[in-house]
Specification:
The chain is an alpha+beta fold. The protein has six helices and three strands; from the N terminus they run ααβααββαα. It starts with a helix and ends with a helix.
Length: 132
Amino acid sequence: MTAFLLQEIRAMLGAEYQDLTQKQVMLLELLRHQTMTINEIAESFSMTPSAASQLVRKMEEKAYVRRDINPADRREIIVRLGQAGQAYHKKMDEVELHLMEKYYGKLRREDLEKLKEINDKLYDLIMKEHRS
């Protein structure tokens, strides 16, 4: 099931997002609702700050993210979504809405409520594991 959904998502996203790696997509998801420092990104991905900086640099080149100096601590770099990263999330929202209408719209309300509850729990577990 996951393979079919991923295939459909990739087709709907279009060619402009096909070159994103899984780590890049994960970083875009992490940055969707918060900014992060290079060190926080490194911790999240269990990589060195140097490797995290390289990941961010590649994404910055295509405007998926941008780096700003933290005004409170000029030694620290804050990473946030760039224009292309915001456009990616807008497109993903459209794709998700389409998939909800296409598939989830055929489920009963009670089933949807159970599915949402389970997905929320699973998301929380994954995010906790990813942060530790």
